[in-house]
Amino acid sequence: MMTAAITVCDVSKTFTMHLRDGIKIPVVSGVNFAIKAGECAVLGGPSGAGKSSILKMLYGNYSTDFGAILLSHNGEEVDLSKAEPRKIIELRRDTIGYVSQFLRTVPRVSALDVAAEPLTQRGEDYEVARKKAADLFAQLNLPERLWNLPPATFSGGEQQRVNIARGFITDHPILLLDEPTASLDAKNRAVVVDLITQKKAAGVALLGIFHDEDVRTKVADRIIDVTTFAGSKAA
Amino acid sequence: MNIQADYNFAYLDEQTKRMIRRAILKAIAIPGYQVPFSSREMPMPYGWGTGGVQVTASIIGPDDVLKVIDQGADDTTNAVSIRAFFAKVARVQTTTHTGEATIIQTRHRIPEEQLREGQTLVYQVPIPEPLRFLEPRETETRKMHALEEYGLMHVKLYEDIATHGHIATTYAYPVKVEGRYVMDPSPTPKFDNPKMHMSEALQLFGAGREKRIYAIPPFTDVVSLDFDDHPFEVQKFDKPCAICGAEAVYLDEVILDDRGKRMFVCSDTDNCESRQAAGHRGELSGMEAAQ
Amino acid sequence: MSDQPLLSVNDVSKFYGSRVGCRDVSFDLYPGEVLAVVGESGSGKTTLLNCISTRLEPTNGSVTYRMRDETTRDLYQMSEAERRFLMRTDWGFVHQNPADGLRMAVSAGANVGERLMAVGDRHYGNIRETAIDWLGRVEINEDRVDDQPRAFSGGMRQRLQIARNLVTGPRLIFMDEPTGGLDVSVQARLLDLIRGLVSDLGLAAIVVTHDLAVARLLSHRMIVMKDGHVIESGLTDRVLDDPHQPYTQLLVSSILQV
Question: Domain-by-domain residue ranges, chain B?
Fold first, then answer.
């Protein structure tokens, strides 16, 4: 497939800090790139360059001041930067997956249910979804005794694996990865690399942030240098 | 002659009687609906039947024959006083025989003898609002009646079953009148509820302190509320009346001595006496005679 | 999610004399959607909730609702009988103080069963069975069915109130600070329960809260109110993670980090 799964056109974003006398902090501007299905692009650049902000805009978590984020959703082209909240929820359910850096835990919900939720939300049978989550946990070497516990008390690495399972469980055509391997050991990093490779083979468009150079070189088809989108100092 | 009767027939002034009659007519027109009226001070305390007395005073005429019962008995203080009151202020004929009366004022019973067309039963009512104990706000209970929201009434019956295993409400058992208004039949035993249904007599209810009048016109549908799996039932008594041997009547328990001896006798004294006069005897009637 | 809104709020304003309760509030709520209304005390969120839920007539504006038969009705053009019927069948209202939403002097079973009896259920056994089932779903032991809510803890009362509201299978539920006044562990349990029920039953909900964590956990979308106005609205995580208005930024920055 040659068509882009996601196209970012001239996107810019500035934070206005009202609590600090309304100073404007330009984050990025003129962001332009496209990712094809089956491709894994990696956002590169130093901390504070705006990598995470770009990822969050693509997930609808941050607003976009200017530009368009075009993606194909259930056969129609949607500009996520202007979509209604309802549409974004729908996009997240069906089209864009996201593995965040930190797991936002919900009290009393077991790790298995946390990971299975994106599937059950799409109407998958509860037991089938849990089975799939369990398979992913096994692959990620998450000790089985943890599966039925709420992840709030898990270690950073354990939580991250729950998060990864939650992100990889669906077959969303677009997957955003915000440092999914940051707190993992070498063995589990390799599992994640494997999972990413499988996603690529399945035609998923991936965009990620990886500080781990080893992982980055293994998965990246292309590095997008974020410093070229440096926010113009308030014109 | 009697001064009170000359002052004004049946104690109340004509304007008041007209006002009460209008309320009664409205109540008859909307069976089971509580019509507010401006209740007067009567020469007796609230709780002694001021509502019933005002209704009786407003409908009684010189040709009427009045019977007054209290818990079925003609000879209790309340009954005797009210009968004497009307004999004095309206100079009407009074009776203890259900069949002879045109107006029967009652506290907490319906006579055993079936009432017939042309008779009027006047109930003394302490608290007319059946929803009161569950919903203290009058504004809300009125709205509930207006909108026919009667789920709450069943909540009370539900609680009965949950607590006692059966509907333990034995008196003031709520009824639905003509398929519309839920009504408190005053604290009559539920034994009497079936008598209200399709009664040939007119039934009027007066609550003096609460200032409400309501009515069941003759031949009106009166259904006791219940659950499909806990249907309405009247009380049953193990024995017949100890004095007259009557069965399927409402009985009062009478303690005979301080060693736990007791008997069950007719609550309706007129009915009991009529049966005795006709030669019926119960198991203790001889003893009664001996005393 | 369906394409037709379940509830549409159009320019709703409520004035108390010259004081503004809420002003020109408009939004749509879709089936299965949870909307959080946040803001400090006095910001008009409870006034708004009451205006929408027909507990308080707005000064201006209209609120329309898509009934079960798919007709869209203006709530304030409906008869009071219809409105009250709607409230006890297709809607639920969870009060901050459970005593406002429960009958404290009747048993838990009767509290849950009342709505069933109100819509004509006349079989004691079935009513009781349904009540027990619902008590189980809100994690109240079956053996408490005949106890009065006065004998319950705050958290249990709140759960009982939820069961009482959900027993008729409503499509829309209003919640006014549902976790207010509960200690944190009880809050967490309740929130999780609400979250589960809302998603299992596909309920639409409007949750008024001053607690942004509650909003984040329960809602898809939120509106931020200040001085009776809606000052910011949108996807819950976006409003919380990328707030634009000065007041919203202040609110978000005021959350204590644990």
Answer: 14-130+174-219, 251-290
In chain C, which among 185-244 make CB contacts under 8 A with chain A?
Answer: 188-189, 191-192, 195, 199, 216-217, 220-221, 234-235, 237-238, 241-242, 244
Architecture field, domain B14-130+174-219: 3-Layer(aba) Sandwich (3.40)
Facing residue for B147 by CB, picked from C80, C113, C145 = C80
Q: For residue B122, give the nearest of B159, B179, B82, B155 by alpha carbon.
A: B82
What are the tens digits of pLDDT across the range B157-198? 999 999 999 998 899 999 999 999 999 999 999 999 999 999
| Contact flag C113-B149 (C-beta cutoff 8 Å) | no
* Residues in chain C within 8 Å Cβ distance of A15: 242
Q: Is B52 one of the catalytic residues?
A: no
Rounded percentage of chain A residues whose pLDDT exceeds 70: 97
Interacting residues of C252 by C-beta distance below 8 A, sequence separation 6+:
C212, C240, C243
SS (H, E, C) B16-50: HHHHHHHHHHHHHHCCCCCEECCCCCCCCCCCCCH
Give the Cβ contact number of residue C55 at 10 Å: 14
Instruction: Give me B147's structure tokens.
Output: 């909108």
Report the distance separating Cα C52 and Cα C7, nearest Å: 9
How far is Cα C49 from Cα C52, in angstroms, rounded to an integer? 5
B151 chain-C contacts, CB cut-off 8 A: 88, 114-119
pLDDT tens digits, one per residue of A117-166: 999 988 899 999 999 999 999 999 999 999 999 998 899 899 999 999 99
User: Which of B150, B151, B162 is the closest to C109 by Cβ?
Assistant: B162
**One of B72, B244, B245, B282 is an active-site residue; which one?**
B244
Buried b (16+ CB within 10 A) or exposed e, B75-94: eeebbeebbebbeebbebeb
CB nearest to C124's CB, from B148, B150, B161 = B161
3-state secondary structure at position C254:
coil
- Give the best residue of B135, B137, B158 to mutate against chain C (max C CB count within 10 A): B158
Let me know if chains B and A touch, i.e. at least 3 Cβ pairs under 8 angstroms. Answer: no
Beta strands of C104-220 (E only): which ranges?
Answer: 172-176, 204-209
Q: Which of B72, B241, B245, B282 is an active site residue?
A: B241
DSSP class of residue A228 equals G
Q: For the whole model, what pTM was predicted?
A: 0.87
Q: How far is CA A221 from CA A4, A46, A196, A205, A216, in A?
A: 14, 19, 12, 11, 9
The predicted model gives A85-111 an average pLDDT of 88
